[in-house]
Design goal:
Immunoglobulin-like, elongated, 20% strand, alpha+beta
């Protein structure tokens, strides 16, 4: 009788467990051999990171169930095995509501699926690659031995080329036969662009043409509108390479590349939001000369224009105010015609200073960085004053503290500069100065050529500017 009761309880527990599983709108059963931990972490790729989606508790030894009330967003997911921190990847395609994953914790490459064609396809391809990799490693070992012996074997290179061709053909076959799958999206997104040879042109022209072709077609194999894109392992690296490796790191060129990326993501809300915020945060905190132009561009053309509706009104106002402070003093802009005053009260208008180059220097007598920088600036002035160079120094101390500026000028040897200040700091209406020292190099029209450069680099950078200007055709 007890045996019958025990059997009945076992059946009831099984039915309750099955009812729990099938009562959910989405569930994945994990059967993990040789896994003895009580918990299992489920996560997914998201941009640059992998984020935790859920923490599962065991239903039995090595048995876990991930259940949700709706199908999770499409993409590549993973389970993290403790304590080894190894992981097993799998895909969620947005259509399959229930499947099972069986794996061996001692060999995370040994994975089988039931009820998921997309995952079977993905791991079938992984098995294919594993088999080919063994052959590749064998061929490369032969090549190294031949190289060490001072010989070469063309058959090895031919075999490697054929192998590469076979893998690409296999990838294309999977992509063409399985459109719409996450596996096809993964494979195609990782395929490189075939660049024409441009034969018959001079070698330098070929390199340039190939570069521009590659950059122009860089995203051809990536479905930038696919909702799974932000949860793919290749997306961040691909976009990062386009922006930081394929693009010249000059601000104007970077701006064009950022617009290309964001334009392609315009119909992909999650990815668009992620990368717009990522770009803004990156360039807001970057101290490289001229990169504040990228921040201003993103605020003006995306946030201010209503293309970031998720941002709060308070944060938007702060960003707009910051961009408004930066805009008048961007490299390439004509610096505002600020007016400051000499010790005797004589006004000095920036635009009245006649010089082929004007240095505008904001400083303070109690600024430690200014004290360290000033000997370099004084030396720079003495080396270049015969070229018509003038330095407009503006002490940032206001109110009664302005009186501390004048004796400091003599102490620091700045008498050759046009030394000014403003008890009421009225220049801040036009030019917001938030730190000192701040150095601008202006041309004869008071256009900002460069700014925020270290004082010890002034001489070198100024002479580079002079050399560039002298090399330009005379008008």
């Amino acid at each position: 009788m007890k045996q019958i009761q025990l059997f009945g309880l076992t059946v009831m527990a099984f039915l309750l467990f099955q009812g729990y599983i099938y009562g959910q709108k989405f569930n994945v059963q994990f059967h993990l051999k040789n896994y003895h931990n009580d918990t299992l972490i489920v996560g997914n790729y998201f941009g640059e990171r992998q984020i935790v989606r859920d923490t599962l508790f065991k239903k039995g030894v090595g048995e876990f169930v991930w259940a949700e009330d709706s199908i999770p967003p499409q993409g590549v997911y993973l389970i993290l095995l403790k304590p080894s921190n190894t992981f097993i990847q799998f895909v969620v395609d947005g259509a399959e509501r229930s499947f099972a994953l069986t794996a061996n914790a001692d060999d995370p490459t040994d994975v089988q699926f039931k009820g998921s064609n997309d995952n079977k396809l993905f791991y079938s391809y992984m098995d294919y690659l594993k088999e080919k990799r063994i052959y590749v490693d064998t061929l490369k070992a032969r090549r190294e031995r031949a190289k060490a012996a001072g010989t070469s074997d063309s058959a090895i290179e031919d075999a490697l080329q054929k192998l590469d061709h076979d893998v690409k053909q296999h990838q294309l076959e999977i992509i063409n036969k399985n459109p719409g799958t996450i596996t096809a999206l993964l494979l195609k997104g990782n395929m490189d662009i075939d660049v024409p040879d441009f034969k018959g042109l001079p070698e330098d022209s070929i390199k340039i043409r190939r570069y521009y072709y590659y950059k122009q077609h860089y995203f051809d194999n990536i479905d930038m509108s696919h909702p799974a894109l932000i949860r793919m392992p290749f997306t961040f690296q691909k976009i990062d390479y386009f922006v930081n490796k394929l693009t010249s790191q000059l601000p104007d060129t970077l701006i064009r590349s950022l617009d290309v990326v964001l334009g392609k993501l315009e119909h992909n809300p999650e990815a668009y939001r992620y990368f717009l915020a990522d770009f803004l945060n990156k360039y807001a905190g970057m101290k490289m000369v001229g990169y504040d132009a990228l921040y201003v561009h993103l605020v003006d053309n995306y946030y201010r224009n209503g293309k970031a509706p998720w941002i709060s009104e308070e944060n938007l106002e702060k960003m707009e105010a910051n961009a408004d402070d930066l805009r008048p003093i961007l490299i390439g802009k004509k610096m505002p015609n600020i007016t400051t005053y000499k010790e005797d009260g004589t006004p000095v208008n920036l635009y009245d200073i006649q010089s082929p180059h004007t240095i505008v220097l904001f400083w303070a007598p109690d600024c430690g960085h200014c004290t360290k920088a000033m000997p370099y600036i004084v030396s720079f002035y003495n080396n270049n004053k015969d070229k018509g160079l003038k330095i407009l120094s503006i002490c940032t101390k206001g109110g009664d503290k302005l009186d501390t500026c004048w004796p400091a000028i003599k102490e620091k040897g700045m008498e050759g500069f046009i030394n000014t200040g403003d008890r009421y700091s009225r220049y801040n209406i036009q030019v917001k100065i938030k730190s000192t020292p701040k150095i601008f190099i202006l041309d004869k029209d008071k256009t900002i050529l460069i700014k925020d450069i270290p004082a010890e680099e002034l001489d070198k950078i100024f002479n580079e500017i002079m050399a560039i200007e002298e090399a330009q055709p005379k008008r």
